[in-house]
Hints:
Layout: H1 9-21, H2 27-34, H3 38-51, H4 71-83, H5 90-101, H6 107-116, E1 143-154, E2 157-166, E3 172-178, H7 183-196, E4 202-205, H8 221-228, E5 232-235, H9 243-262, H10 268-288, H11 308-311, E6 314-319, E7 325-328, E8 331-335, E9 347-352, E10 358-362, E11 365-367, E12 369-371
Parallel strand pairs: 1-4, 4-5
Antiparallel strand pairs: 1-2, 2-3, 6-9, 7-8, 8-12, 9-10, 10-11
Helix pairs in contact: 1-2
Amino acid sequence: MEGLVMKGWDQLCLEMVLKVVEGKMRREQAEQLLGVSERTFRRYLSEFRKIGIRFVRHGNKGRAPVNKTNESIERRVQELMKEKYFDFNMEHAREKILEDTGWNIKRETFRSWCHEVGMVKKAKKRRSRPRYKRERMPQPGLLVQMDGSTHRWFADRETCLIATIDDATSLVVGAEFFEGETTFGCLKVLSDVVSKYGVFRGLYVDHAGVYGGIKRQGFSQVKRAVEEMGAHVIFANSPEAKGRIERLFGTLQDRLVAEMRLNKIRTIEQANEFLKTVYLPHQHNPRFSVEAHNTQPAWITLPAHLTCESIFCVKEYRVVGRDHTISYGANRYMIDEALKYSIHHQRIEIRIKADGQWTAYFADRPLRLVKIKEHKKMAA
């Protein structure tokens, strides 16, 4: 397959299609993992049988649609929605804009423009669709569910237990107590999972902002880290959809709290030690885990050019100035490296650890920085 480079989504899509074609996975499970409709996945299968693995790269990738509307019209329509028709429903506003300007904008195009600027009037609540039981994934490592539960786990104080459970086996593959459901906490648990088992193919989470949900659709450190490994984040549309992790917390609140009381657990350090070395491996997992339909693990090894330290950290970016300095944390730093060429206007990656320590990287190599001393202004 000369000239075809697959990353992230393309590779996952090809893997799911191959599993279905070889009879190793049900089509419905592959659709769930990819987050696509039955019709779309059937099209993938049809195109795979016709042209092979090239089906993952659409022929129009990178091309602008021939029917793309002029951007000036889009901006003007969005201005009208914000200034004049902010309390109209979309169909009513589309009719008024047609009257005012003569622009007959397609309904879906108009809807997407309104969503971009947050000018969508909520529809009246309708009856919910029926929900059906979702079968387990056939192999361990295909799908991992993750969530956090704030509860009085020990010592009459509230802490947050962040846990991950394998969808195929109900094996708790990672769990740890933190003060809250934070980004660093989620990254720490995922790092432990990848270090022990390998890379999963999909992470099933709710719409919390820490995972890249509604409050943080633009960027999430957790979603970024998962995608850097070549995996895929799937958002559940209801608590029932991720019932395995929800039932896990119910079981833990019933059993783990009592076990820690008997063992006189008083601190987070004691709780994590007991959870990881005693409760999960010797009490919970042997009792509540089940055998997968296909016992062949689907965990994959982390690519050689990646490490858990380089992925599971908070990353920020700064642009290098003409004088080879960057700003970070209200300070300026000079790049103290013997560079053969200027890197001004290039992006520097700042990798921040949970303890607040950080290192600057360029082209995946650490940079030595020197803090610039600011001259104090003379008193008037």
